[in-house]
What we know:
The chain is mostly beta strands. The protein has 6 helices and 41 strands. The chain has a 22-stranded antiparallel β-barrel. The chain has a 5-stranded mixed β-sheet with strand order 3-9-10-7-8. Strand 19 (257-272) and strand 20 (276-292) form a beta hairpin.
Amino acid sequence: MKNFYVSLLILLFSLNVFAIETVIVTGNRIGESKEMIPQKVLVYEEEELKTYNAQNVADFLKQISMGHIHDYPGLSTSIDIRGFRTDTHGTDLRGKVLILINGRRAGTGNLSLIPMTNVEKIEIIRGPAGIQYGSAAMGGVVNIILKQGKEKGEFFIEGSLGSFDYKSVTVGANGKKNGFDFALVLKNMDADDYDTDMGTYPKTDIGEKSISANVGYTFNKLDRIGFVYNKFDSGDIGYNNKQQYTMDNLALYLDDYQNKKLESYDFDFARNGEKISWNFKVFKGEEEKTYHDPDRDDFGGSNSENYYKTEFKGIQGNIFYKRALIELTTGFDYNSYETINRNSENTAPYNPDSEYSDFGLFILPKLKLLNEKLILSAGLRYDIYELKIKETPLRSDVKAQETEKKPTTLSFGLKYNFSKNISLRGSYGEAYVIPQADQLNADYSVWGMPYKGNPDLDPETSKTYEIGIDYNYMLLNGYLTYFYTKYKDKIITETVTETVTQSYITWINSGKATIEGIEGNIKFDIGGLFKLPVIIEPYLNFVYYDKFYDDTNDVKLLYVSRLQASYGLFVTNNPNDFYCRLNFAYTGKQLVDDYDPATYTTTRKYKGSFTVGDLSVGKRLIKFKRAGNLYLKLDINNLFDKDYAYVEGYPMPERNYKGTLKYVYNF
Length: 667
């Protein structure tokens, strides 16, 4: 297999090269040229994003096949990068892939709660980013960058109708004048239960509202003060549990519903100078999930209402200094999370309240040699975490306790730019996931079983080595990366027996794994080859795992496919006039745990592979001389009516359709 990797690298070196445009990214938390970053950063601009059929960020990531998708009905989606996943429960500190909004922690690992309505760009770091962002950036980072107003302002309104009684209306405007800029989008959407090959899947209805506002003022041509407000409120969502356990007791669940909300406020102050750039950010927000059972008649007689809320806030600052041979980025983070769990009607919650705080410092120096062809980089980060279990109403057995952890992270990188068209890169990166407050400080009981924390737990850690090549030609471009990750100190539960009748559950560092593979992308413009007036571009994105092994249990890792890929054909003469994208997303066979709620048992099994096809076509219908433009977009999801599920027992919709009319007026 290693000979195969080497052969691919040699083949790519043998090709001719042409000039490409430099892309600015924020992989090191300050905007810089793509040529300066030793890791692979994927950049998806607004013009490309609109050619997919994506209601939220999760929908988009499904179609480009970054890795395994764990998608449940009811707006609950986690994504995988290099065998590590985000977490849709609790704080984003629980995940192993980090989600950012405008460069700061999103406060959630559930990408279904982040709509695409006001997204200008999505940047994806494949591989560890523990230096830049601290805990949870083990597999990679997804940075969602929101729109800012531009000199050519616009007002737009769009409406969509589709299968399963889908209806949505979106209104927005953005612009920039005399230093003031703004971007505002509001959306209202509703859809009924969707159909599968087994008929209507009950309790999969969705209703959501969202607002995104980004306003700012630029002075001295360098400094900008900005304010960002985002709110996603799902309204009433159907609440389902694996076909409601059995069809015999389905009626018990038909009155159940849930609400999910993500809301945040950001204040930014930034300077974009020639030699010195900096930014300072203060943010605050909350994620809330509420579950309702009005008649309390379902399985086990659960409470009529319970909710889980995470309140997050933070401050972060960065300084970027640039000279002839040196670039230096340094900065700090302060992040605080408070988790609150409540059950209604004076019933004690299962989990106690907890609090996390982190203060981190980092430095990322770079040395530019040989006329900026050779880039040498390093990184160092130091964090101080305080993790607390708090006294919790109605939980007299919970004791307030606190533990402190101080992890240190290192990275090294090298990149050689043979030209503006082709470069070779290599890097070593460390990352970690901090233990949770209950894993360190638990002293309570659940269903009569005592839980005791282990304050000596170490963070889960990874070390990743990678080498890759980036290439971009007049007609052909893409990249190829080989990566090798050693993961250790996975935190697992252990039952400790004190006497014949007494035992308790605690947590220990025990698990370890090895992950090795290649990932890449290639696309080629056939239209340019034959000098046609249109782009006809076949493309392929893939990740192939040569090894994905749980070394502790001597088995393959769960929920990892040996091959994950997306491929298709993109055709356009101008994305603002006409485009057509036929996209296929392939998920390979994988080992999964299949839970049976009727018997409370879990069976380990192989889940089969599947491919989902989607078709999106956009066309400008009318171009008014003074009154704007009218656009039509048609989407077909699950084009070949595939029976599939990302999670065993939770089937996805059958083939469905959506049409969208959008009116845009420029001012």
